[in-house]
Target: DBF4-type domain-containing protein
Amino acid sequence: MSYKFILSNKNQYSKDRNVNIDYSPVFNIQLQQKLNIFPIFNDDHQFTTPGFIIEYEKPAYESNLNYHQQLFNQKIEQIKIKNKQLLIPKPKHRVQICSVCKTKYTDYLTHTQSNLHKKLFLASPYIKKIEKIQNDLNQQLSNYNSQSTDTEDASLLEQSNRKKIKMDISQMISNY
Model:
């Protein structure tokens, strides 16, 4: 006995396919009974399984889907654990070296209060340049303040005084 099905696709330009399905029961030796081989509609909404399956093969399809779903979930859990391990911060370097003294230290606050650190810090060429700039600026400000002691004179500065101060600052910066 054979049934003929016409499967039409959803696309309007595709051809319809004729499918012949043989309907003859199969005897299963393990179960000692005849099994229905008539195809049934598979409504599990899985893309990996066919739309029509034979009725006695449905448990095998379901167990296969469950097995592969469990494998997939295990892989996702392993990836989550690995990502969590990546988020754990690594321990800091155990050896900490002062950039001024080039020596190792355990507590930075006590190290900066030591005499050796203070001496090397003040002897640094960068600190000397910064102190020189600071002294020059203080001298410029004191000259500026001594020229105009009156508040009215300070508010009504002439343009020539402004240019002179700006030139002195630019010359001072160009020296460094």
Notes: Residues 58-87 form the longest helix (30 residues). The chain has a mean pLDDT of 75. The chain has three domains: 2-86, 91-123, 129-176.
